[in-house]
Amino acid sequence: MANLQVKNIPDTLHERLRSYARENRCSISAAVLAALERELAMWEWRGHMARRPESDLGVDAATLIAEERLSRDREIGSWYPDDHLPRGERPSRGMDGIDIG
């Protein structure tokens, strides 16, 4: 197994590492190894995602999300009969501000 020595660690970073290790009941070395592993895994994942071919949905994703939210908000709005809630509490707009009823 290889060794790695890191010099000139800023005091604030070292204290953060020490606090993290203490809170997670591990050594500073174990905390650094876990952080390196997470960072490298994210780097590899981003590289993998960047190599994937683009998908053509025929419409941009924001439009699909807005349509799905509108559909969901209309469904939720249909759960409340008009006479069930006082007028001021009847759902008339979804969370994204689109009229639902």
Describe this structure in words.
The protein has 101 residues and is mainly α. It has two domains: 11-51; 56-101. The protein has three helices and no strands. Helix 1 (11-23) crosses helix 2 (28-51). The longest helix has 24 residues, at 28-51. It starts with 10 loop residues before the first helix and ends in a 23-residue tail after the last helix.
Rounded mean pLDDT score? 84
* Count of the separate structural domains: 2
| Fraction in beta strands | under 5%
End-to-end Cα distance, whole Å, is 65 Å
Radius of gyration: 25 Å
What is the tally of beta strands?
0
Shape: elongated
**SSE order in H/E notation?**
HHH
Q: In terms of structural class, how would the helical and strand content be classed?
A: mainly alpha
Work out the helix count: 3
Main sheet specs: none
Features:
101 residues; mainly alpha; 2 domains; 0% strand; elongated
Topology of helices and strands:
Elements: H1 11-23, H2 28-51, H3 61-78
Helix pairs in contact: 1-2
Write a brief structural summary.
This protein has 101 residues and is mostly helical. The protein has three helices and no strands. The protein has two domains: 11-51; 56-101.
